[in-house]
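Schema walk-through. Below, the input block comes first and the output block second. Nothing else is stored per chain. Lengths vary across the set, and this one has 244 residues.
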Amino acid sequence: MLAACLFLLSLVGDDPNAKLHDLKDGTVKIATQVTVDSEHTTIKYDLGFNPVTLDTLLTEMKIDVGDDAKYKDKVEKLRTELGKKISSTLKIEIDEEEAKAVEIKTEPDELSKHVQISISLIFDTPQTTSFDVKVTDVGFQNQSQIYTSGFKTKSPDLAVVESSTEAITVRSKPTEKTAEEMRPFVITGRIKWLKSDAASSQSEETATFTPLIVVAFSLGAAGIVGLLLVPNDLASSSDHGEHH
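--- output ---
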């Protein structure tokens, strides 16, 4: 068993994905996930590529890694540079106004078949009733792309009511385009605060039927609620009939 494991490791060598990667040369796989909670909106940008494409990206971005650089060092160099430049290639608009990230985080090297670099851009979540989020990706226009995207919320007070992804709150089906077909990839979504609507609705009902709501919530008895809506003499008559 040990001999078999050592043999597999010898095949992989310095690059953990070298013998496992099935992405074509010159192709990048990108997943953009928008996650909204009550305080922050996070754009998670995952990038995957094979070793040949990695060297191409380093050359195109004029990143010098040296002749003897190992695979892990090359990925780290690219990750660092992308973290610095991501704001210029990934445009974020909230309610049609350009938004600036309050924090940008680059994730550690991931032992994943298709994700070598993960960058998160964090924004303040608007406290308005609803808001639109638009993400425009103008990066990697010289490579073929396999693109997925999605919107989701992490708060019961928020909901995705519209999204350009095919299935709301989950990732879209992959979209693949060649370098010749490439143009900026745009995803959009509308987020709605449920809590504010519920509070507004409750306030309107309370103003009109205050006694009704108090009894409904405290006792949960439809019969008692009904009694509150009829005159007192009819209610007394009904009680008398039930006892006899």
